[in-house]
Specification:
Blueprint (H helix, E strand, L loop, with lengths): L1 H9 L1 E8 L2 H11 L3 E7 L2 E7 H4 L3 H7 L1 E9 L1 H7 L4 H17 L5 E5 L6 H10 L13 H11 L3 E9 L2 E8 L2 H13 L3 E4 L4 E10 L1 E2 L6 E2 L4 E4 L1 E5 L5 E6 L3 E17 L1 E7 L4 E8 L2 E5 L9 E12 L3 E21 L2 H21 L3 E5 L2 E4 L3 E13 L2 E4 L7 E3 L5 E3 L7
Parallel strand pairs: 5-7
Antiparallel strand pairs: 1-3, 1-4, 2-3, 6-7, 8-12, 8-24, 9-11, 9-15, 10-12, 13-14, 15-23, 16-20, 17-18, 17-20, 19-20, 21-23, 22-23, 25-26
Organism: Dorea acetigenes
Pfam families: YqfD
InterPro entries: YqfD
Amino acid sequence: MLTSLIRYLKGYLRIRVAGYSPERFLNACSHRGIYIWNLTADQGAYDMYITIKGFHKLKPIIKKTGTKVIITERFGLPFFLHRYRKRKLFFSGAAGCVFLVYLLSLFIWNIDISGNIRYSDDTILTFLESRDITHGMKKSEIDCAGIVKALRKEYNDIVWASASVKGTRLFVQIKENEDSYKNEESDSAIQEQGEDIVADRDCVITEMITRSGTPMVHVGDSVKKGDILVSGRVEILNDSGEVTGYHYLKSDADIRGQTSIVYEERQNLTYTAKKYENIKKEFYFIRAGHYIIGFGAYKNPYETFEIWTEETALQIGKNFLLPFSYGTRTIIPYQPVEKSYGKEEIQDILSEKFSRYCADMKKKGVEILQNNVKIYTERDFASAKGTLTILTDIGGKLPTEEIPLPETTGEDGTERTDTDDGNE
């Protein structure tokens, strides 16, 4: 590959050697160190490739061996330049294009951010912009180490960051501390003295597994919305079985219950359809950064229309993005037409919506035990409504109510209040 490129840059020839003794010509070339390749015989003559420098050394050999040498083809950059030497505008444009690509390669045209979960791309880009790191800045002005330090200083939960420049793209990779979310939850749990699990709807308890806290209901019990299911207050008993204090904690349990919910979905019997005209008006545009240049003015006398846009960004390779793009915008007019759904169509639409609703409920862990939904048709609309018997997770969190410590009777008959202050 490299040898072929060097040959093209220097230029080379394809020649035909004929005469009384072409073999003497080949031996003389070998003796003088003239390199030839791809030698083939053709009707008593020989075809071969030779460099321009080697061709200039052939004159004494041709004279000595009495052979005849004919140039059949010319290859390489020198001959290309000679052939188009009068086309100055072409070469000026080519040189200008190369210079423009080189000039654009000195700037950053795309900032790629990856690894961020808690912070959005816009948040990171806004922060970088506050540090004068934006699209269109010079690559020589980018301090990758400074970007990393600034990110870690600004965001405490970013444990690792990396910045690198490839082509005209700035890659920023970050890794957030996932434990920070858990620590925030733990801190809030420490600040709270306790949490109850309360019913978020009327239901019948079907399953209950308590990991921490005091169960207040059992499987089979009917509960109302707001009832305490698991209390975050645990009683502390003495040897006599008397309550001497309370310990508050964050209750934790898996609770499922059976309940009924109301489902209703409406659908208008009429709808507006689009009748597209057999007319399309196109115009082209070029985008350079934030500027757009359009070609082909158009008049749009239509009240209702759609605009379809197709845009292609220019880039060289994978990482060499350019701040240019081109595309077309197509205007397609249409007329709004009022239509009505048929009986089967309206049933299919409502059935499809109900199926999607059931699928979403299933994704949330809700099991549908009984379906009493029916379709009703009114004057202007149809509706699917009824009740669903479901099995679902029950419970929400509320702070535990703190109550005063109980008063107990001591051995001397006096009343006292037991406290646990940690002193013996």
